[in-house]
Amino acid sequence: MSAIQTRPTLTAPAAHRPGWALGAAVTGAAVTAAAGGAFALPDLPTGGTSVAMTHYMELLATNQPWNLLMFMAVPVVLAETVAITELAILFRRDAEPWVKALSRWAGIIGGLYFLVVFGYLLVNAAIPLTTGGGWRGPVDVIAVGGYLSGAVPLFGIALLELRVLGRGLTDTTRLKWHAAFVGLFLVVAHIAMIFGMLDPTLFGYHTPGHTGMNM
């Protein structure tokens, strides 16, 4: 009886993966290059002139820390609470009841709160600046307009939670609307931040006189 010979099983070579040492070396080199470049770059001259601020930044910078808390911290924290709890619900449909309750009440309070902020700034800032010609160039309009437009998605979330909007939606569809509203708020909020931090004089605004908001 002849012995049965078996051929060795040929396996494809495993794909080469860089080890942790290579990753650490690349990361270290990138950090070193970034830090060296930051220290090597010369300081940009300002000419001794003060930088003009948009009304968005002026609002947050005055009456510290209350304006920053009322107009930035509170609405952003509530919106991020909705976003984080929504992710937990999306990944685990059987999430704890307190997670769903926190998401619901953060959405309701955030929407109603920002609606009050919207009305206050519209009456005390946007309308007077428009009628009085007090805008500081296009970036000023974009920054304030982007901030105020955040009322639409936040109030939309509140209407969803109160079952005023999308009363016949399924839970899955309501989560999709939630995610869309949260994403829209983050987009307009970051537009407001980016344009609000710019110097209006870079885009043609001249400073004949100071026209601050009376808050």
What does this structure look like?
- With 215 residues, the chain is mostly helical.
- It has a domain at 72-203.
- The protein has helices at 20-40, 55-61, 66-91, 97-132, 138-149, 151-161, 171-196.
- α4 (97-132) runs antiparallel to α5 (138-149).
- Mean pLDDT is 80; it is low at 12-17 and 44-49.
In terms of structural class, how would the helical and strand content be classed? mainly alpha
β-strand percent reads under 5%
The percent of residues in helical segments reads 55-70%
Mean pLDDT across every amino acid position: 80
Largest sheet: none
Shape: flat
In sequence order, what are the helices and strands, one letter per element?
A: HHHHHHH
- The radius of gyration computed from the alpha-carbon positions, rounded to a whole number of angstroms, is 26 Å
Head-to-tail CA distance between termini:
102 Å
Helix count equals: 7
Number of strands: 0
Q: Low-confidence parts, pLDDT < 50 over ≥5 residues?
A: 12-17, 44-49
Keywords: Membrane, Transmembrane, Transmembrane helix
Transmembrane segments: 20-41, 66-90, 102-122, 142-165, 177-198
Protein name: DUF6803 family protein
Organism: Planomonospora corallina
Structural topology:
Elements: H1 20-40, H2 55-61, H3 66-91, H4 97-132, H5 138-149, H6 151-161, H7 171-196
Helix pairs in contact: 3-4, 3-7, 4-5, 4-6, 5-7, 6-7
Top keywords for this entry?
single chain, mainly alpha, membrane, 7 helices, 65% helix, 215 residues
Summarize the structure.
65% of the residues lie in helices and 0% in strands.
